[in-house]
Amino acid sequence: QVQLAESGGGLVQAGGSLRLSCAASGRTFSNNAMGWYRQAPGKERELVATINWSGESTYYADSVKSRFSISRVNAKNTVYLQMNSLKPEDTAVYYCARAPGPSVRFNANSYDYWGQGTQVTVSS
User: Fold this and answer.
1) How far apart are CA 107 and CA 99, in angstroms?
2) pLDDT value of residue 24
């Protein structure tokens, strides 16, 4: 069993920054790809970024490319999402998820564990 706990969300003005953290406990996650998703009210959950087991391969949604950065510290069982130049349209609940294998995943159905989510609200 794996537990994922997100933290770092909050209220920020447009143009500001936040860093989300996702701490994993239970079974190791160092051999697993991880992803960050978000879901805004009335919208489907969408992939924000994903990172492979080593951190050498990453992928970003076009809407966040050059503004967000995903990283991981396997020794700390933690994955991060650095969010800069935030926009009101980034407002959503952000979830981290663990993939069952080492390679990046793009489909939400291919992740096997999810956190409870952390709210990010960007005011204009």
Assistant:
1) 10
2) 95
CA distance 92 to 9: 10
Separation in Å, CA 63 to CA 43, 46, 100, 101: 15, 11, 26, 26
**What does the pLDDT read at residue 96?**
97
Please return the burial class of 56, using the count of CB atoms within 10 Å of its CB with bins 0-12, 13-18 and 19+: exposed
Tokens found for residue 31:
């051999």
**In the predicted model, what is the mean pLDDT of residues 39-55?**
96
Q: How far apart are CA 28 and CA 42, in angstroms?
A: 34
Residue showing tokens 């924000």: 48
**Residue 65 DSSP label:** T
Number of Cβ within 10 Å of residue 57's Cβ equals 13
Sign of torsion, CA 117 8 104 101?
Answer: negative
In this structure, what DSSP letter does residue 89 have?
A: G
